[in-house]
């Protein structure tokens, strides 16, 4: 991706480029690799289909819903059903191939699919080969889909806003670049090395405060409030609340996170770009939340 950008710039010395689709493809490829490892190309096809499905889904939730209409054989419903089936068949194919390889004694791969299947097989073995224990094929398929849907758009949204804000705040862009070059001169770019990136972390925390990829957390109350009521915890409003963050709440000021999230929020529940509690995002450790 960077090579392509450099090539475009070098022709004229400058060019206009919509980075958003490139960042979407980048995050989809990274997640495909993490989820399916060597079957990454097949994963890519699945993710293209899920992306198409997402568009239909967005149109559907933005329209008035007539109860039962999702079962009608409309053009859109038929297309969504077709994609659902195609994704299932493709994922089933990857899972079956992996199962065969595991049966032949091939070491399991350290990707999401390998971990889920290994866990499932262990459960089944521990329960005397009872196939009703462990994760079902449906569970594995749904987990793979969730991994993609939850991680792809959110990551690319974060990246694109980080680029916008760093281009508007050149001093922070220079500090961030300097830190990346300095840190990765001494450490290989591994997951562990990320904890040495103090400025980058502050910048990303501030980007997620101003432009959280998920703007609200919908919930249905079970006990209090009374039960059955739909509530929405608004991330965007909490992150821009002047009473919580001060008069400069709408400004890009990564320095507010210089001593961590607890200090920046004065230990109040005011910052939750990755959710909170038992359903917190699995990616929360990356940002030291
Ligand atoms: C900047 C990037 C990200 C943001 C802003 C973000 C945001 C969130 C939020 C707000 C939730 C909570 C949803 C709720 O409580 O209803 C969540 C859950 C989740 N996220 Fe992320 N996420 C990001 C990256 C990722 C990545 C890279 C992955 C995996 C590849 C991922 C996987 C998940 C999963 C599986 C859940 C569901 C956890 C559960 O319900 O138990 N997220 N994310």
From TrEMBL:
A GO cellular-component term linked to this record: membrane
Keyword list, A-Z: Heme, Iron, Membrane, Metal-binding, Monooxygenase, Oxidoreductase, Transmembrane, Transmembrane helix
Source organism, top-level taxon: Eukaryota
Subcellular location, record wording: Membrane
Oxidoreductase is among the record's keywords: yes
Transmembrane stretches, start-end: none
Principal localisation: membrane
Membrane topology: Single-pass membrane protein
Binding site for heme: 281
Required cofactor(s): heme
One example GO MF annotation: heme binding
Pfam families (UniProt xref): p450
Name of the protein in its database record: Cytochrome P450 CYP72A219-like isoform X2
Species assigned in the record: Prunus yedoensis var. nudiflora
């Amino acid at each position: 991706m960077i090579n392509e950008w450099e090539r475009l710039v070098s022709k004229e010395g400058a060019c206009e480029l919509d980075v958003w689709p490139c960042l979407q493809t980048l995050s989809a490829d990274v997640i495909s690799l993490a989820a399916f490892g060597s079957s990454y190309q097949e994963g890519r096809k699945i993710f293209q289909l899920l992306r198409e499905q997402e568009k239909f889904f967005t149109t559907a939730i933005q329209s008035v819903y007539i109860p039962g209409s999702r079962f009608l054989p409309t053009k859109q419903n038929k297309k969504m059903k077709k994609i659902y089936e195609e994704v299932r068949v493709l994922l089933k194919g990857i899972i079956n191939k992996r199962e065969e390889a595991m049966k032949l004694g091939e070491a399991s791969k350290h990707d999401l699919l390998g971990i889920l299947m290994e866990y499932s097989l262990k459960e089944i073995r521990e329960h005397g080969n009872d196939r009703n224990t462990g994760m079902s094929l449906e569970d594995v398929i749904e987990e793979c889909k969730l991994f993609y849907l939850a991680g792809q758009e959110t990551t690319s949204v974060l990246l694109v806003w980080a680029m916008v804000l760093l281009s508007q705040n050149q001093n922070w862009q220079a500090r961030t670049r300097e830190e990346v070059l300095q840190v990765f001169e001494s450490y290989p770019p591994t997951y562990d090395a990320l904890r040495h990136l103090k400025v980058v972390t502050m910048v990303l925390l501030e980007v997620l405060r101003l432009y959280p990829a998920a703007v609200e957390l919908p919930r249905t109350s079970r006990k209090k409030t009374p039960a059955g009521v739909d509530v929405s915890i608004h991330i965007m409003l909490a992150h821009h609340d002047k009473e919580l963050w001060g008069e400069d709440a709408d400004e890009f000021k990564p320095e507010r996170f210089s001593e961590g999230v607890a200090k920046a929020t004065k230990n109040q529940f005011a910052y939750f770009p990755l959710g909170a509690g038992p359903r917190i995002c699995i990616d929360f450790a990356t940002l030291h939340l």
